[in-house]
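DM from R.C. (forwarded with permission)

"hey, sorry to bug you on a friday — could you get me a structure for this? deadline for the figure draft is monday and I only need the backbone to look sensible"
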Amino acid sequence: MSEETASNTKSVIYVRLLDEGTEVSRPTEVLEVGPGLFKVLPTPDYDPADEKWEFPPGSIVRRRKAQHSNGDHWLAVNPNSY
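My reply, with the result:
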């Protein structure tokens, strides 16, 4: 995959929110930046004073399938966790 193709591929991933009192995650878009690597993009209403994301916008992450009450989705994970 070329660098140009990789940088134009967007998909949705869920990022865990910290300090919420219960496990919760936020959907947001990511850009594929390399094989299995994704750059987290902010949501239109992203406010770091309101929500603490495990991986804030600009972070490079990997993804893994996670189960949710609404079905499976991609969850952002540490890029070194593989």
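R.C.: lifesaver. The chain has one domain: 3-77.
me: no worries. The beta strands are 10-18, 24-34, 37-40, 52-53, 60-68, 71-77.
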